[in-house]
Amino acid sequence: MTSPDHILGGYPGTRLRRNRFSDWSRRLVAENRLSVDDLIWPVFVCEGEQTKTEIESMPGVFRYSIDRLTEQIKLAAELGIPAVALFPATPAELKTPGGEEALNPENLICRAVRAIKKAGIDIGIICDVALDPYTSHGQDGLLVDGKVVNDESVEVLAQQAVVQAQAGCDVIAPSDMMDGRIGEIREALDLSGFQHVQILSYAAKYASAFYGPFRDAVGSSANLGSGDKRTYQMNPANSLEAYREVAFDLEEGADMVMIKPGMPYLDIVRNIKESFGVPVFAYQVSGEYSMLMAAAERGWLDREKVMLESLLAFKRAGADGILTYFAIDVAQKLKDAN
Ligand code: PBG
Question: What is the pLDDT of residues 66-112, one digit of tens each?
Fold first, then answer.
């Protein structure tokens, strides 16, 4: 349906407004629909008990201690959200140049995964593979002479994936953008008996300023300081390069791919979905969330409407699912509408 032939017709015989006049008709001809099955909820975990702290730059988003987290995940599952993506706010004193805490089977994330599994909650658990929540320099990989080194980082990331799989995580989501990591992670998982653990690769992840609030949430912005991630995350100027990133990741064993950020990169979502026809996810990242929330708080935008419209736009672009901090709200809203 890419040729314009099927849309030929002309006024006054053709009136496109005819189909739009009534609600039933608009619903009938709607091309895309947002469903709870499209949602992945990213959640921040912190140490402590009965703790719930709001992230200043992300109004309405909290870090939960494990006990509170399980309640929240239970709610998400009850609402029908298929999966959650967990991110740790690692205590500063546990951060090191080598990010060793990432490999500790007792680290925050592993304990959180085990708690969710133990509670018997039927929901997919996605764990991020990258070192930035654990490194004192805030980079996703290891630093040698001030540079993020690739192969040495991949080795650690593969171990991190195995540790998370051992804790019971269902989906490994490498967000580090090192070359060759998907293949190494797949091999490491398989050798450890985790052939069934899925890989959702952050395949086309751009070096974006929209991640700012996330770095506040996991407490890595101070560590990163004036550093940036441009030697491994993609240049926002590039679109064709995304095909190669995705192709390599699929060849190396990725089950699903992700484009990130979301709204400013919907062209990439469309290209990748059309060219590869594999499950494609997009991440409505922290900065996108904060932008919408900031405007809504000022009364400049209608929060609920922009929330739903922005997520529908992901579907229209071809995304099979969306990681969004609005997930709980949206799921609730979709449920109320039924
Ligand atoms: C860590 C990671 C980041 C995000 C997800 N995983 C930040 C970064 O790459 O600096 C961003 C998510 C968001 O902004 O919501 N590698």
Answer: 999 999 999 999 999 999 999 999 999 999 999 999 999 999 999 99
In 56-108, the DSSP E strands lie at 58-65, 83-88
Residue 216 near ligand 1, beta carbon < 6 Å:
no
Say whether 276 sits in a helix, a strand or coil: helix
Domain ranges of the chain: 36-337
How remote is the CA of residue 211 from the centroid of ligand 1, in Å?
6
**Homologous superfamily (CATH) for 36-337:** Aldolase class I (3.20.20.70)
Q: Measured from the CA of 130, which atom of ligand 1 is nearest?
A: 16
Distance 283 CA to ligand 1 centre (A): 10
Query: Is 333 marked active-site?
Result: no
Ligand 1 atom having least distance to the Cα of 205: 9
pTM of the model: 0.96
The Cα-based distances of 310 to 24, 176, 212, 226 in angstroms read 22, 26, 20, 31
